Amino acid sequence: MIRFLIPFVAVALFLLEPEFALFSPISWGDGVVYLVPRFVILYLIFLSIYYSRKRACIYGLLFGLLYDVFYIDIIGLYSFLYPLVCFIAGSSVKFIHQHLSVTTILSLVLVALMELVLYYFFYFINFTTIPFTDFLSNRLLPTMIANLLFLIMLGWAFKYLINARLLQRARDIS
Amino acid sequence: MPHFMNKKLILLLVGMIFLVALISFSLRDRQNASLPEQFIKDTVGFAQSIVAKPANYITGIFNNINSLLNTYEENKRLKMRLEDFAVLQAEVNTLQSENESLKELVDKESSLKDYDPLNATVIARNPDQWEEKIILNRGSSQGVKLNMAVMSSQGLIGKISLVTPFTSEVELLNTNNPNYRVSAIVQGEKKDVFGLIEGYDVERNELILKRIDSSFEVNVGELVVSSGLGGIFPKGILIGEITEVTTDDFGLTKMAYVKPAADFSMLEDVIIAKRNATIIDGSDGEGTNKDLTNKTNSESANEGEE
C-alpha cells in the first residue's frame, strides 16, 4: 500500500500545482506578486534526501518531461533541472544533518537557485524583460514564502510517509 | 581511473549537446504539437480536468463567501442602477429589432459581429508564470482552431495558441510576446478610431494601444473593443478602457494605455468565440498572406464594415 503511495503523492502534487497557480498573480499594494507553486520538486528533494537519490532522479526526469510537454512547450528545460536538483540534494546527504528543519532550508535554497536559473534562461530567450530587482521582489520572495508555508504544513508528512516506506522495505528484506 | 573519468566527461558533454539541441528544436515550432506531445497533453489534460472540478468548486465557495460579505453595499448600488437599466433595455430592444429589419432590407446576412460561443473550463494555469498561459478542456475535436478569440464574461482575455484534440492553450493578453497583436476600435463619441493592441506594460499592468491616427481624438475613459478586421476575432468584444493618451516614440501616431476589462488571475469559465464570417489570415493570425477568401463564396468576405 505504502509502496504505491509515494508515486501517487507525486502525481497528486503535480496535478495540484496548476490549480494553486490559478490564484496568482495577486495584486499586493501597488505591485503584482507572483506565487509559483513548486510542490513536486520540494517533494522530490525530500525523497532524494530521505529515500533514494536514484529513485528521486528518475521521478524528476519523468515529471520534468511531463511538465515540459504539458505547460512549457520547451522540452529539456525542467526535465534537466528536476533531476539535477534531486542529484545535488541527494549528494548533500553526506555533509548535512538530516533534521527536518535543515532539510526544509536546504530544499528552499535549491528551489531558489532553480528559480534563478529559470529566470536567466527566460531572460536569455526574451520571454521576459523584467529587471533582476523586480524578479527578486515580485517573484522570488513571495514564491519562497508560499513554498515555505507549504513545507511547514506538509514537510513532516513527507518525512513520515518516506520513513514508513523505509520501515516496510526493511521488514520485507528481513 | 582517468579513463573512467574521461568516459563520464564525454557522456556529460554529449548530454549537454543533446539538451541544447532538444531545447532549440522545441523552441523553433511552438504552434504545433507533434503526435507524442499531443498524446501526453491529452492524457495529462484528462487527469487535470478531473482534479480541476473539485478545485473549482472549492474556489467557488470562497468566492461566494466573499461576495456574500459585499452584498449590502452591492445591493444599494445595483438598486440605483436598476431604473436606468429598464430604460436601457427597452432602448436596446427597439434598436435590435430595427437593426434586424434594416438588415433584411439590405439583404445582409453575415456580420463580423456574429460568432458561435463555445463554453470551456480552465483546467490549469502554467504554474511557473513566465508565460501567461492557461489550458482549456476543449480541443480540435470540438472545433477549436488556432488564434480564436477567448473571452471571459468581463471581456477579451486572449487567443488560442496551441490546439490538441482535447485540450487547447490560450496565450493571455498580458503576454510578453512582441508579435501578439489585436486589431481594435476605440468607441469615440462621434467616430470610431482604429488602433492595434501591441504589448503590455508590466509596471502599469495595462495594455498598450498603438498606431492611432494622430488626427483623431481619443479621450480617457473611452471603451476599446475588438474590431474584427484582423481577420479572426469577431467584432465588438470588450477589451478595456483608456486610462492615458500620449504620442508614441516617433511622434507620428498616438498611443494609449488601456486598462483591461477582464481579470486575468481567477479564471474559471471562459468562452471561445468561433467567428461566423470568413476567417482571413491577418494581423491576429500568423500573417502568412495565404488567400483564404476564394475558396468560399465571396459575399461574406467582402463586407468589411457595418
From TrEMBL, chain A:
Any single Gene Ontology cellular-component annotation: plasma membrane
Keyword Transmembrane helix: yes
Record-linked InterPro entries: Cell_shape_determining_MreD
GO BP terms, alphabetized: regulation of cell shape
Residue spans crossing the bilayer: 31-49, 56-74, 104-125, 145-162
Membrane topology of this protein: Multi-pass membrane protein
Pfam families in the record: MreD
Cellular localisation: Cell membrane
Key word ATP-binding present: no
Entry keyword set: Cell membrane, Cell shape, Membrane, Transmembrane, Transmembrane helix
Family: Belongs to the MreD family.
NCBIfam families, A to Z: shape_MreD
Name of the protein in its database record: Rod shape-determining protein MreD
Organism in which the protein naturally occurs: Lysinibacillus telephonicus
UniProtKB/TrEMBL annotation, chain B:
Any coiled-coil regions, as ranges: 85-112
UniProt protein name: Cell shape-determining protein MreC
Region annotation Disordered: where it falls in the sequence: 283-306
Record family assignment: Belongs to the MreC family.
Function field: Involved in formation and maintenance of cell shape.
Gene from which this protein is expressed: mreC
Feature: compositional bias, Polar residues: 294-306
Start and end residues of each Rod shape-determining protein MreC beta-barrel core domain: 122-273
GO cellular-component term (any): plasma membrane
Keywords for the protein's UniProt record, in alphabetical order: Cell shape, Coiled coil
Pfam families on file: MreC
GO biological process, one term: regulation of cell shape
